[in-house]
Amino acid sequence: MRRAAFVGGSAALALAAARPLSAAQPTPANGYPAFSWERVPYAAQIGKFRGDFTPAEVDFIAQRFAFIALGPGTGRGSTPDDRFVQETGFYRNASAIKRANPACKVLFFWGVPGNIRNYAAYADYDPAWRVPNAAGTGFESDASNPGFRSWWARSCAKIVAHPDIDGVFVDGANPEGDHPHHTEMLRLLRDALDALPEPALLLVNGVPAPGRHGLPSMLELCDGIMIEYFGIVGKHEPAKLKEYMLDVIGLGKAGKIVMARAFPGFTFFDPEVRDWSYERKLAEAKRNVAFSLATYLACAQRYTYLQYGWGYENIGGAYVLEADGTTPDPAWYPEFLKPLGEPLEDPVIDGYVFTRRFRHADVRADLQAREGRVTFR
User: Fold this and answer.
1) Mind listing the pLDDT tens digit for each residue in 75-92?
2) pTM of the entire predicted model
């Protein structure tokens, strides 16, 4: 399967000027998710750790998300550790989503270097592949061991082969800062996925980086990435957020899937908000949605999706739960449901201010003032 190269950072501007608007680009024939500018394109990486998604949650996800990456722990509920099998939790919830909407792509979480408990795949994991972790608190898998790398890729591909699983979301890959072996793991996984009868998506959580050690960039091996902490990273550094936004433009122009994982000015691990009620977090998220939405729309390309919220569970704000805690509010964030239309231009960038016109909306994002405005027409 042929994959596009990536041009990131400041080079994205030159690339953006040289190519037509993303709406005119052809649709890839490699199993990509559905994409439409009709409303805000949305996807999410979340789990349901207290059991399975309810029928109402399944229906909302299936109809509103282009794809979902199911997080570790999905389907666990009160099942004891010695009886819970992570793959069955993934399969059960994936099957429910696919029944509700076969077009919704379902991925599952697979970590680097692994060692997440409860996966059946670990039945043939060799403990000899473990080494003490850097903190001295336990063990982690040794990515320099070729046996581990082969097992990691092979085991992941077996899970993807399930008929209701469309691909994998890989977390923890660090081909730039650790050693070259994570890149080799991704290469092995890419080869294993390409050998499957149906196209399989490979998304990676990470920041775009050039290839090193004579190896390809991870962007040459995967279909796309999640840019985590989109907006949070630039909370006190507008230059960093601008860099991320330029990365989104470059990735989109290169035909890559991007999930811009935006936060409402706080995250689930901020000490000052840990004791907030769900209602308070939600109210704050609704007040702050304009900036995240504006920065996303200012740089979004075809196959760029927004995820908004403060956490990684169903109670983390990716959708809005009614008082019963199990039923999504159909009103959601109302801005996400308004007619948007295709972009009429690439973003106009003046320092740290991005402006852009869509068929039914005008967008302005001031990264220094952290002010965003989306005016729907």
Assistant:
1) 999 899 889 999 999 999
2) 0.90
